[in-house]
Design goal:
Chain lengths: ~325, ~1200
């Protein structure tokens, strides 16, 4: 072998040469019957247990859902609920009593649920200013907040439709005459509180206009502490959604009766939206979510069935 | 060097009887040149005069570029936005700066700018290459008269009209020149016009008598003259003009015109005046803009784009109607939207206006259905594929140093769908180099070397027999049989290397007549005469090569050269030609001493295609007058005397053998003349020669005919028109791949048929259908006659019962002219398609293009044209794919081509490997592209239905921006660049696999719609599983519910996983690159999400820390991803598993065999599969060898039975 030969030989071995000649070492998996059956069975054996475990977790969650939008309107006003809810002179308090069917372990999460409420409408979603929420009224470029940007030629903080339509029903919970302690802190994402809502930004000129939307904000509390607002500002993806209201940090026993005193301030009557109050425990997976488990079991079992069908077909017509 | 000194003083015109006859000056006056079309005036030797008005002739600078610096931007932009999809994206980009847009402007403009920029950069690069090519031509040097008889070098682009140019041997003419004088005394020069018409024989041009004196540099000191002539035009064979010189006007005709791009041969130098320069020259006027070609897949892709556009329009309409309805009837109730403060976009009072403006928004929003990156990805992929083609070492020609080149990258996948190959002959199939191989003298065949055809056939036979043996025999017996076979083939298949002749043009080997041994042969006198004919009967000129002391010959045709070399090797060395004689040194004479003999040439009747023979009448040293003749066997055999037929039978047998072996044959004969007989004839001949009038030529021919009779046959020669390396094998493989091969050649019918045999396009036992026309009849009669022949032949084919019967169609150019007329071409095409091989001979460049168009349009299948010369340019441009042979002089074919290869044999790899791969890659890639964009785009639509059709997207703008550009682009590119269903070796072993392309198995509507359906399914699964899982429940143990950002991000994660797993399932070939790209894309998504979440919340918005804080700690996020990914891919997975196992395609089976390593372990099975996979062909070696194999097998069978009687064998 001469020198040049050897060089050429070496060149042929280099990865780049192999690359240009499209001869890089490659793995060429072929779906042989054995592989096919193995893969399908394997999928099945992964998914069925996963499904069962999730299903079990989901079943361990205890949930109480109470619709109150109609009940909490006194009988005489039920013909015209909108004017009832818009009339400030009428007291909006209302009581519900919830029966606990199963033992609920603390923390018990309190949600309010709105249906038929398009928080994901483009006009709505766009109508906010993240910079203003962080930097306060010094930040002027808030045209995205249209049509809730200025009032009396003064900027509104927080601006935009989302903030303006803040949910403002309130709930208190009483068990056997003793008020249950509801923790309303730490219901929003920590990153939101720390980095998206200014610690020095105070509500300003909020809900001062002729049109009053939803809740008002305490102008002395900085936005970063207004957790209701922060939760509300996380717009939901679907027109039916739950938002966290607070946590009950006591266990509830089966057959306990919890009386809820609520202020039915928020107007969902104009668009026929439902309002629900939800008490729910959580598992490691989250809330009650049978679907995930069922879907996993379904996928797992169909792949096992596929494996069996395939095996039978293969035995029948062996190539 | 003394090259050419000998012949410099020759009046070569005396050699020619028929062509290039000088019309005497008195015969014709100057042309009357007036009026439009004849306005060009050239002042010779005064080039500066043409810079001023009114001339302003074009300079010799040529440019074939599409753009220049100024026009590039507007023109290229126009080209880009010519595409519907790009125009649409331009529209969306414009909308994106208005409030109508659902996305931010940058997310719309950036991808478009990227895509268009990349395409334009590619255009610019290609144009730059063209520019460099032009510059190479423009800066060639030529000698131009400067002043006072001094010539200096100038670049071609500086040559001006009116310049006196001196062109030396083997140089190209820089412009169209008027020939003034040459190194020959009578102003003759030889020109090779291969670049213009592909003809390889030299053409003779001659100068006017009056300018012959201008044959040295000094003569041009005070030379002036004026040329009045026609305006620039593309007609190559006409020229009308007058030349005013010394106050006399002379007529000019085409024989004085030297065309640009033709080449000076066999002549030391010529002087000429530039008449047409640059783009005015005839060859440039002939140049047509190369049409932009698009592949079938790309054209079909347009339809898919239209389908997607309609889908887009439809869902946009649905959503805008939905929006209008929602806005009108529901929105007034949605107080939280403040419906009283409305603008036009959300106006319950004007729902139609809102609906229309929403339509615009929706068209932008669902733009993800149209893959913006499709075009750019395809371009990237194609460029990379093209670079693989360029870099393929197995298509690199070491002799010329030319790699294969994909000159336009947009036809790669078309290479995988070719149905018909139209090939040129000379320079493409053959090297245009003749080798003297065999001869038959006095009825005895000499020459033991085998032609390439024989060699290859023998080898193939041996291999095939081994295969078949292996099937039937056990090891011990096999050995014995192999020996038998070896015995059978040893005569013919002797190894080439041992016998490689070092002499160009001479591969003869036979000790009986070599080295003077012929003297001891029985018919020594006849053999001597045979060699003398070879040495005397020609028009060549010897040249002494001073280094080696031997002579080389400059002949008009390569055959003649081969004869002279052969004669030299046999000991009859032609070394000198004078005006009237030929001198031959005979090394082996009876006396034993070398003798120089002079043969006086009395007359020479040269070869024309009509006469098909050449005759010289010589007087030898004894005073004997001899007529020596060589010509086509049929012509010679017709003219033999009664007693001259002594060897006819044997010679004829040999001629047939030679023909079958693919050799070109000529028969040699002589006649002894009496002095009186000759002088009587010569008188008549001279009379005819000096006669004036149109029928002079006929007269001459008749006189010549009178003499060329009563000949005595002495033998025949067999010359191998050397096929290029590997051509028969390549044709065989291509035939097995199911391709049809047509040969279109400008050559004679005999030559074409010979080559047909040599490449196994024709074989013995094939029914040849020759369609010819008798030109003397009236047009209608001829047409009717041809139509009759065609219909008869079609009938014959229809009535043929034998399934193995093969037909070959042979047609010449003149007949083709009729057959290509509108009313007949369908019948002709029908017949041609039924024939296994088609050979068209004597076709003009235009006819080549017409035939190509006929096949392309008539059959609707993909055609590929391959050629090397300028005469193939039309065909190359007309065909769906044009392939040029590079490495030969003249680049026209390559310049016009889409691909260039150095040799024909590389076509096999180009088509069967690269074509097959590229087709599958692009097809799969395009399908996947549509799948991915449908799967993604539809989720946007579903979500919109949940937002009151307001046009809100569930994904962050940045996700969408990255989706096409980063997150899903690289895997699909790697699919398009690296996918291999089977390795290249297997592709070559199973040429039949190629048929997947022409049958279009991977890009039919069934498959496309299947992929679209898959996309629809995936979109449904991704969207609905996610929204049900994240509907209203907390998704974390901390009780938080999912907002839009969390849902969108999870959904997007599912999409990334599902799409990338899908592409992994689609691929069958994973190198580390694919792994990196696919799994890297998924990784990139998480990385992006992490980094994006780290950015300031004013940038990332709701995605701020979404992965770290919200999603990653939630098990539901991961389990949803897993569930959705598997659910999306499960049906596809089941589909491919079932398809592979129960309805496997060809490549599946091969993959499986390879996977189990069956090819190594079980050679028999492998070769059985291989032979099974062979396409049943009627042409090529395989078909040809079949018959012989059957014959041999019969023989072996007999031997077996006798063997088996002795040794009982267990049945295998």
């Amino acid at each position: 072998m001469t020198n040049t030969d050897r060089e050429r030989h070496r060149e042929r071995e280099t990865a780049f040469y192999l690359f240009t000649q499209q001869r890089l070492p490659a793995c060429k998996p072929v779906l042989t019957p054995a592989w096919v059956i193995t893969i399908f069975l394997f999928t099945g054996f992964i998914f069925i247990p996963v499904g069962l475990v999730t299903l079990r977790a989901s079943r361990s969650v205890v949930e109480i859902v109470e619709r109150y939008d109609t009940e909490c309107v006194p009988e005489p006003f039920r013909i015209d609920k909108v004017s009832y809810v818009q009339d400030d002179s009428i007291p909006k308090n209302c009581s519900l009593s919830l029966k606990v069917r199963k033992y609920m372990k603390a923390p018990i999460y309190i949600y309010y649920q709105l249906d038929n409420y398009y928080q994901n409408h483009r006009r709505y979603v766009k109508s906010r200013s993240d910079r203003q929420l962080l930097h306060g009224w010094k930040y002027h470029a808030t045209s995205s907040c249209q049509p809730v940007e200025f009032n009396n030629n003064q900027p509104i903080v927080p601006c935009g439709l989302i903030a303006w339509s803040l949910f403002n029903d309130t709930f208190t919970f009483i068990r056997e005459r003793a008020e249950l302690k509801v923790n309303r802190k730490n219901i929003a994402w920590k990153s939101d509180r720390d980095h998206k809502f200014g610690k020095t930004v105070y509500p300003f000129n909020f809900q001062n206009g002729t049109l009053i939307g939803g809740g008002k904000l305490n102008p002395r509390i900085p936005l970063s502490d207004q957790e209701d607002l922060i939760v509300w500002m996380r717009t939901s993806a679907l027109p039916s959604f739950r938002k966290l209201y607070g946590r009950i940090e006591e266990d509830l026993d089966a057959d306990d009766v919890v009386v809820v005193h609520l202020m039915n301030n928020y107007n969902t009557y104009g668009f026929g939206g439902k309002k629900k109050l939800v008490l729910s425990t959580s598992s490691w997976l989250g809330g009650k979510n049978d679907f995930l488990g069922l879907a996993c079991v379904f996928v797992g079992s169909s792949s096992v069935i596929l494996a069996i069908v395939f095996m039978l077909l293969h035995l029948k017509s062996r190539r | 060097m003394a090259r050419g000194r000998i012949r410099a003083r020759l009046r070569r015109s005396h050699l020619y009887t028929f062509s290039c006859l000088r019309p005497s000056a008195a015969e014709e006056g100057p042309h009357s040149i007036e009026g439009p079309g004849y306005s060009r005036i050239v002042h010779c030797n005064q080039p500066l005069m043409h810079n001023k008005k009114p001339f302003k002739y074009r300079s010799n600078y040529i440019s074939t570029t599409k753009y220049n610096f100024v026009t590039f931007l507007p023109k290229a932009l126009y080209e880009q936005f010519h595409r519907v999809a790009n125009l649409y994206f331009l529209g969306t980009a414009i909308i994106s700066v208005t409030p109508l847009s659902p996305f931010s402007a940058v997310s719309m403009i950036a991808p478009l700018a990227f895509v268009v920029g990349l395409s334009m950069a590619k255009e610019a690069l290609e144009d730059w290459r063209r520019f460099m090519q032009d510059m190479k031509v423009n800066t060639r040097k030529v000698k131009v008269h400067k002043e006072d008889g001094i010539f200096g070098n100038k670049t071609w682009q500086k040559v001006q009209v009116g310049d006196v140019v001196k062109v030396e041997k083997d140089q190209f003419f820089p412009a169209d020149l008027l020939l003034l004088s040459s190194s020959y005394e009578d102003g003759i020069c030889y020109v090779e016009t291969m670049n213009l018409d592909g003809e390889t024989n030299l053409k003779v041009k001659r100068a006017l008598e009056v300018t012959l004196s201008l044959d040295e540099d000094e003569a041009f000191k005070n030379f002036t003259g004026t040329i009045t002539c026609e305006d620039p035009n593309p007609s190559l064979y006409t020229f009308v003009g007058n030349f005013e010189y010394d106050r006399q006007v002379y007529a000019l005709d085409p024989s004085q015109i030297l065309l640009r791009d033709s080449k000076l041969r066999n002549t030391t130098f010529v002087y000429g005046i530039a008449i047409f320069a640059g783009h005015d020259s005839k060859v440039m006027q002939n140049a047509t803009k190369s049409p932009s070609k698009r592949s079938r897949i790309e054209r079909k892709m347009d339809y898919i784009i239209y389908v997607l556009f309609s889908l887009l329009l439809m869902i946009s309409l649905i959503s805008s109607i939905g929006f209008a309805v929602k806005t009108k009837f529901y929105m007034p109730d949605w107080w939280y939207l403040q419906p009283q403060h409305t603008d036009d976009y959300y106006n319950p009072e004007k729902p139609v206006l809102s609906g229309v403006s929403h339509l615009v928004t929706a068209l932008v929003l669902y733009g993800y259905l149209i893959p913006i990156s499709l075009y750019v990805s395809i371009e990237v992929v194609k460029v990379l594929q093209a670079s693989f083609i360029n870099q393929d070492i197995q298509m690199y020609d070491e002799e010329t140093g030319n790699p294969a080149q994909a000159r336009t990258s947009n036809l790669n996948e078309e290479l995988g769908q070719v149905d018909t190959i139209l090939s040129d002959k000379t320079g493409t199939l053959t090297c245009n180099q003749m080798d003297f191989l065999k001869c038959s003298i006095a009825g005895t065949a000499y020459g033991v070397c085998s032609s390439e055809v024989e060699l290859a056939a023998a080898q193939q036979m041996a291999i095939d027999l081994e295969d078949q043996d292996a099937e039937r025999s056990t090891g011990s017996r096999q050995k014995g049989k192999q020996q038998e076979i070896e015995l059978e083939t040893v005569v013919t298949s002797r190894d080439e290397k041992d016998h490689k002749s070092p002499i160009k043009g001479f591969s003869f080997e036979d000790s009986r007549i070599m080295k003077g041994n012929w003297l001891r042969e029985p018919n020594a006198d006849v053999i001597m005469l045979f060699f003398r004919i070879l040495a005397i009967c020609h028009t060549a000129i010897p040249e002494l090569n001073e280094e080696t002391g031997s002579y080389t010959y400059e002949a008009e045709s390569p055959d003649e050269g081969a004869f002279l070399v052969a004669a030299r090797e046999f000991g009859f060395e032609f070394f000198k030609r004078t005006q009237s004689g030929v001198f031959v040194r005979e090394r082996y004479s009876v006396a034993g001493q070398p003798i120089d003999r002079e043969f006086k040439i009395l007359n020479m009747l040269e070869f024309t295609s009509k006469r098909k023979r050449m005759t010289v009448i010589v007087r030898d040293e004894d005073g004997q007058i001899l007529l020596l003749c060589k010509g086509a066997d049929s012509i010679i055999f017709d003219r033999l005397s009664k007693n001259g037929r002594l060897y006819e039978e044997d010679t004829n047998k040999h001629l047939n053998e030679y023909g079958e072996a693919g050799l070109r044959t000529l028969a040699l004969a002589y006649r002894k003349l009496e002095e009186s007989e000759y002088s009587a004839w010569n008188n008549e001949f001279q009379k005819a020669k000096t006669s004036i009038g149109a029928d002079r030529e006929t007269l001459l021919e008749n006189v010549a005919e009178m003499m060329e009779r009563d000949l005595i046959l002495i033998g025949a020669t067999a010359v191998e028109d050397k096929l290029q390396k590997g051509v028969p094998q390549c044709i065989d493989k291509l035939a097995q791949a199911g391709l049809k091969i047509w040969v279109l050649t400008g050559d004679k019918m005999e030559t074409a048929i010979n080559i047909g045999y040599a490449c196994s396009l024709l074989r013995q036992g094939m029914k040849q259908i020759c369609i010819t026309a008798n030109s003397s009849d009236a047009k209608e009669v001829v047409k009717e006659n041809i139509l009759m022949q065609i219909t008869n032949a079609s009938q014959m084919i229809k009535l043929e019962n034998d399934p193995h019967a093969a037909f070959a169609l042979i047609i010449d150019g003149k007949t083709l002219a009729y057959a290509l007329e509108d009313d007949m071409k369908q019948q002709f095409l029908g017949l041609a398609v039924d024939c296994a091989s088609v050979i068209c001979c004597r076709v003009s460049p235009k006819q080549k293009a017409l035939v190509t168009r006929l096949v392309k349009e008539g059959t609707g299948k993909t055609t590929l044209a391959i050629g090397d010369g300028a005469n193939d340019v039309g065909m190359i441009q007309e065909a769906d794919i044009g392939v040029g042979i590079s490495g030969v002089e003249g680049m026209q074919a390559v310049m016009a081509s889409d691909f260039s290869v150095a040799q024909f044999r590389f076509l096999e790899r180009l088509l069967v490997v690269h074509g097959h791969w590229c087709y599958k890659r692009i097809a799969q890639m395009v399908c996947y592209f549509f799948y991915k964009n449908i799967a993604f785009g539809l989720t946007l639509f579903y979500f919109e239905a949940f937002t009151g059709f307001s046009g809100q997207s569930v994904y962050d703008d940045w996700y969408m921006l990255l989706f096409n550009v980063v997150l899903t682009s690289l895997p699909v590119i790697s699919l398009g660049v690296f996918e291999q269903d089977v390795s290249s070796e297997v592709c070559l072993q199973f040429p039949a696999l190629y048929q997947q392309g022409p049958r279009n198995l991977f890009f039919d509507w069934y498959r496309i719609l299947g992929w679209m359906g898959n996309g629809l399914y995936s979109s449904l699964i991704i969207f609905f599983l996610n929204i049900i899982i994240f509907y209203d429940q907390a998704f974390r143990s901390g009780g938080q519910t999912a907002d839009m950002a969390a849902l969108g991000t999870t959904m997007f994660t599912c999409i990334i996983w599902a799409l990338n797993c899908q592409i992994a399932l689609t691929m069958s070939h994973f190198t580390w690159i694919q792994h990196l790209f696919i799994w890297g894309s998924i990784g990139t998504w998480y990385l992006f999400l992490f980094v994006y979440g780290m950015l300031s919340p004013t940038i990332s918005g709701n995605a701020y820390q979404i992965l770290v804080e919200a999603l990653a700690p939630a098990p539901i996020y991961w389990s949803a991803t897993l569930l959705v990914t598997v659910a999306c891919n499960l049906p596809y997975m089941a589909h491919i598993c079932f398809q592979r196992c129960f309805h496997p395609m060809d490549h599946h089976i091969i993959q499986e065999i390879k996977y189990y390593k069956k090819d190594v372990e079980d050679q028999r099975m492998w070769s059985r599969e291989r032979s099974k996979a062979r396409q049943k062909t009627k042409i090529g070696f395989t078909a040809r060898v079949d018959a012989k194999i059957r014959q041999l097998r019969g023989k072996l069978q007999r031997k077996h039975t006798s063997l088996e009687m002795h040794s009982p064998v267990t049945p295998s």
